[in-house]
Amino acid sequence: MRKLLGAFLLLAALTACSAPPPLAPELRELLDRINAVRATGTTCKQGGDHFMPPVDPLREDELLNRAAQWHAEDMDAAGVLSHTTPVGAVHFAVGATPGERILDVGYLASAIAENIAVGYPSPQAVLQGWLDSTAGHCEALMSPTYRDAGLGRSGAYWALDMAAPQ
Fold it and tell me: If exposure means fewest CB atoms within 10 Å of the residue's CB, which of 18, 38, 78, 88 is most exposed?
């Protein structure tokens, strides 16, 4: 019994040490703002204005938070905005795609999307940038396919990973 209890305590300590930190307040605010837009619907500008109806909120996922945060840190370290991991990255292999990064942190996805940005000073500004974008960011934000989200920020770089579990 004593060995079993010792093994349990060691496992609990290792799990506690490896647990990711909670979202920073600015990232929590960004997720709340995204979910507010998802709750009311919005007009996306890609290919002409079209209304995207309300959808369920995104749930915060610790594994996706890790993927997004590490990608933001990799872009910041390299000074490059890219959906593929840039040369100079410190967490993921150079050239890794969003799907590969999400799998690398242990999230098994049936669908994924990634929004990234650089230079926005606040959660409100980066969200507005994604909503106004012509690159599909708004439609990804409003897609009912995605149920989970992870967010990251490092310096001027922002990352949002959205996924549906398998």
Answer: 18
Domain ranges of the chain: 25-38+56-165
How far is residue 149's CA from residue 137's CA, in Å, rounded to a whole number? 14
**Calpha distance 159→49 (Å, rounded):** 25
Collapse the DSSP code of 51 into the 3-class scheme (helix H, G, I; strand E, B; otherwise coil) and give the result: strand
Q: What is the pTM of this model?
A: 0.86
Rounded CA separation 15/99 (Å): 25
CB atoms < 10 A from the CB of 77, how many?
Answer: 17
Q: How confident is the model at residue 10 (pLDDT cuts 50, 70, 90)?
A: very low
The pLDDT of 6-18, averaged and rounded, is: 40
Confidence of residue 23 (pLDDT cuts 50, 70, 90): confident
Look up the CATH number of domain 25-38+56-165: 3.40.33.10
Across the chain, the runs of DSSP E, i.e. the strands, are: 42-44, 50-52, 59-60, 109-118, 148-154, 157-165
| Average pLDDT of the segment spanning 35-61 | 92
Residue 11 has a pLDDT of: 37
What sign results for the dihedral spanned by CA atoms 88, 163, 34, 28? negative
Secondary structure (3-state) at 53: coil
